[in-house]
Specification:
Elements: H1 11-34, H2 42-73, H3 79-110, H4 117-146, H5 151-186
Length: 188
């Protein structure tokens, strides 16, 4: 399913949604193929959790909340649209909670608690449903807001999203350098 976000100032958000939908398709396929299994593909589950913990929540959600939705706050948009934005932020928190629960269940499973398989599958299903609803809500929201945006504000949003990405990359590089120094110091 393609995204309906076509605005020139939102290519980062659009591309994120396409990528994340692709990841969640893998998750849906996994759930369908493994619903009757008495074991888990931990490599797959770990990869999903790493993606959610290192990209979806701290980068994508944060980018939307700290840049995009912040710019929308000063617009004279109807209350029902403001409410939709609040619902999206709430869904971000719900998804974050599901990821935390999935991480906890994974750790319990890895320490021998095989009874967690159904709970893990259940949380993965809830994650998939919640994210699907989130994307649909956002894709309905953006056209409603677009009419309130000037070209200048669209450019400001686009620049803000790009600056956010630059800062994330800088933080990642700095973190890798710090980790490399720590390893180096430990070997001397």
């Amino acid at each position: 399913m393609d995204t309906i976000i076509k605005d020139d100032y939102l290519p980062i958000i659009r591309d994120d949604h396409l990528m994340v939908r692709h990841i969640f398709r893998y998750l849906i396929n996994y759930l369908y193929e493994h619903k009757e299994n008495d074991h888990l593909d931990m490599d797959f589950i770990n990869a999903i959790i790493i993606f959610l913990d290192t990209y979806l929540i701290p980068v994508h959600f944060k980018r939307e909340e700290e840049v995009l939705f912040k710019e929308f706050e000063d617009l004279s948009i109807p209350i029902y649209v403001q409410s939709e934005i609040k619902n999206i932020i709430h869904r971000h928190m719900t998804i974050s909670n599901f990821v935390s629960e999935l991480s906890l269940l994974r750790r319990q499973y890895e320490t021998g608690s095989n009874s967690k398989i159904n709970e893990i599958h259940s949380i993965m299903g809830l994650l998939t449903l919640s994210f699907n609803k989130l994307v649909i809500e956002q894709e309905k929201l953006f056209p409603k807001i677009d009419q309130y945006l000037t070209d200048l504000l669209k450019e400001k949003i686009k620049n803000g999203l790009n600056k956010f990405n630059e800062n994330i990359i800088i933080q990642m590089v700095q973190q890798h350098i710090i980790e490399a120094y720590k390893k180096y110091d430990n070997h001397q």
